[in-house]
Specification:
single chain; about 450 residues; Aspartate Aminotransferase, domain 1; Aspartate Aminotransferase, domain 2; 2 domains; 4-stranded mixed β-sheet; 13 helices; 15 strands
């Protein structure tokens, strides 16, 4: 195995050696355009050669500071030595058995650990898959099987995946649905608790969020949907992201989640929490639900679960996951290499990376909020832990989104060696590896300060 270059091991800040993209990167991008599906979304020409910790080296020798972590996947940083060691040890033993047909010891070991970590004191069972979308598909199937009901309630801005069942729940961007015909699931979408730009033109003081009755955006389920389009006795589940990801890194008030939980309990409806992006230490707790004392019936996990190896989990109340053999399975789900990586990942998270995410997240939020006094372009800064959104607007009074500014900031950050990614209409998302340090946060804040100041 080729050794990692010293500058990746020792340098914590970007080193740019060529104009971007460099000559080798340009050729790779050209080859990619010829052979790869044009459906992929690439905001800038980053062509990766190797990565370590929070640093990425491209094919031309340029080194970048990664504040995206493969879209919140590389939770322990790139190629953490303990994760790599766990993967190597497993590869030396065996690469694959089909968990739908055979057993191996680390599979129930990880399932037991996830059962203990997931919110709620009740007994749980786990189904392993390969991706977040697959975990969501499993959750939806389980909800229909357990309740014998078929309707779902979802939220605008949600992203749950691109497979046909998950796509029915996704309501983030029209282009994700365009051309794919009728949706596979019967889903009714309503507005999410986006207090910065409330679709009902209310405030937390006027919507009920600060009262025992809960916010209007949650109560609309019982007050309107059950009386019109979604009979409660036909609704299998309410599906939500605890913190919305692609929708703009939206953090709801705690009363939004507790009100939905209360409504669901009153009507014998399940609650599915999508923690694919917000789970595994990302928000400064193992799961974002813990910030709100929120306990779902089914939870979906992926992304940061195995530090970059494909793996997902559908975690459910044990009394729900009683379907018989053959009802739901996967050839590659729970692959032993992914299981080994996940067990190592969880050890690292519990040994200090979750605490680091909370600490560095607070430091970043403080620094980014200071920038608001300098840049009227920043309408809102929000987040939990290292799941942070910076929303750019044309005017703070009207809150009109500034999508062009987002593109410009993304590009400027890339040209200066900082990897970011957009979400929502005009929000910069910061989801760095949980190993980042204070000086790296300082560089990110300074780079964003400069980039936002250059928007024309």
């Amino acid at each position: 195995m080729q050794a990692v270059k010293p500058e990746l091991e020792t340098n914590k800040l970007p080193i740019l050696k060529t104009a971007l993209p460099g000559p080798i990167a340009q050729q790779v991008v050209a080859d990619d355009a010829k052979y790869i599906s044009p459906s992929y979304t690439r905001p800038y020409p980053l062509v990766v050669k190797r990565a370590k910790g929070a640093m990425i080296e491209d094919v031309d020798g340029n080194v970048f500071l990664d504040f995206n972590a493969g879209v919140a996947v590389c939770s322990t940083g790139h190629a953490h030595p303990r994760v790599v060691e766990a993967i190597k040890n497993q590869v030396d033993d065996f690469l694959h058995v089909c968990t739908a047909d055979y057993y191996f010891p680390s599979l129930p070991k990880l399932a037991q650990k996830l059962s203990q970590l997931a919110p709620g004191a009740h007994d749980k069972r786990i189904h392993f898959g390969n991706s977040g979308a697959e975990a969501v598909e499993g959750a939806a199937k389980l909800a229909m099987y357990a309740t014998r009901k078929h309707k779902f309630i979802g939220f605008f801005g949600a992203f749950h995946g691109r497979t046909m069942g998950a796509l029915s729940l996704t309501a983030s961007k029209a282009r994700q649905r365009a051309g794919f015909g009728p949706q596979a699931l019967d889903v009714t979408h309503i507005p999410y608790a986006n207090c910065y730009r409330c679709p009902y033109h209310l405030t937390q003081q006027t919507c009920g969020a600060l009262e025992s009755k809960g916010p209007h955006c949650a109560r609309v389920i019982e007050d309107l949907l059950f009386k019109t389009t979604v009979p409660a006795d036909e609704c299998a589940a309410v599906v939500l992201e605890v913190v919305q990801g692609e929708g703009g890194y939206i953090v709801p008030p705690a009363s939004f989640l507790s009100t939905i939980r209360d409504i669901a309990d009153r009507h014998d409806i399940l609650v599915i929490a999508d923690e694919v992006q917000s789970g595994f230490g990302r928000t400064g707790k193992m799961f974002a639900s813990e910030h709100f004392d929120f306990v779902p019936d089914i939870l979906t996990a992926a992304k940061g679960i195995a530090s970059g190896i494909p793996l997902s989990a559908t975690v459910a109340r044990a009394d729900l996951m009683t379907w018989p053999p053959g009802a739901h399975a996967s050839t590659f789900g729970g692959n032993p290499v992914g299981i080994a990586a996940s067990l190592a990942t969880i050890e690292l998270l519990e040994e200090g990376l979750i605490e680091n995410a909370a600490r560095m997240g607070e430091y970043l939020l403080e620094g980014l909020r200071d920038l608001m006094s300098k840049h009227a372009l920043i309408g809102d800064v929000r987040g939990k832990g290292l799941m942070i959104g910076i929303e750019l607007v044309k005017d703070r009074t009207t809150k009109e989104p500034h999508a062009e500014a987002l593109k410009q900031v993304e590009q400027t950050c890339f040209q200066r060696g900082l990897i970011t990614l957009g979400c929502g209409t005009s929000t910069i998302r910061l989801s760095p590896p949980l190993v980042i340090e204070k000086d790296q946060c300082d560089f990110a804040i300074k780079t964003l300060d400069d980039a936002i100041g250059m928007v024309k």
